[in-house]
Amino acid sequence: METKQTLTLIAAIGSNNALGKDNDLIWHLPADLQHFKNSTSGHHIIMGRNTFESIGKALPNRTNVIITRNPNYSVENCIIVNTLEDAIKIAENDNNPFIVGGAQIYNQAINLVDKLIITEVHKDFEADTFFPKIDKSIWKEVNRQNFKADEKNKYDYSFVTYLKN
């Protein structure tokens, strides 16, 4: 019996849907970075070129797939494609590939994915890129873990999972 693939979008967003500013993260939450690593390890991670360049290197123990319109773009240890559809096709043998950003890719992917894993950072941030609004008529919250700020994580945050209705 064939296992159905679950295509998951994973993101960390501010209370005002802020994603980033100047091609960088606005906050530093070690717990979120660990959550991202634990969730995506062993899977394909699909991202736009800007997101890849903000990370700066291929992430270990994952198949890094970069979407770019530049036909000459090349990065060691990464798969380069030109469209989100091509990226998803590359990951067809992975039972749970992840869309990891940025804003353009999230906007293209949000209606294609089966699951959202969102870290809600409980603060409004000044940003130049934003996550698309999560339409509660399409998405049902199925899990939420709330955390208070501590010595390592400067802001209150929640790990929230949504499934398509």
TrEMBL record:
Record keyword Transferase present: yes
PROSITE patterns registered for this protein in UniProt: DHFR_2
CDD domains: DHFR
NADP in keyword set: yes
Any Pfam family hit: DHFR_1
GO cellular component, as recorded: cytosol
One GO term (biological process): dihydrofolate metabolic process
Residue ranges occupied by any DHFR domain in the UniProt entry: 6-164
GO molecular function: dihydrofolate reductase activity; kinase activity; NADP+ binding
EC number assigned by the record: 1.5.1.3
Reaction(s) catalysed (UniProt annotation): (6S)-5,6,7,8-tetrahydrofolate + NADP(+) = 7,8-dihydrofolate + NADPH + H(+)
InterPro entries: DHFR, DHFR-like_dom_sf, DHFR_dom
Family matches, as Gene3D superfamilies: Dihydrofolate Reductase, subunit A
Sorted UniProt keywords: Kinase, NADP, One-carbon metabolism, Oxidoreductase, Transferase
Biological or metabolic pathway of the protein: Cofactor biosynthesis; tetrahydrofolate biosynthesis; 5,6,7,8-tetrahydrofolate from 7,8-dihydrofolate: step 1/1
Family to which this protein belongs: Belongs to the dihydrofolate reductase family.
Function summary: Key enzyme in folate metabolism. Catalyzes an essential reaction for de novo glycine and purine synthesis, and for DNA precursor synthesis.
Protein name: Dihydrofolate reductase
Organism: Urechidicola croceus
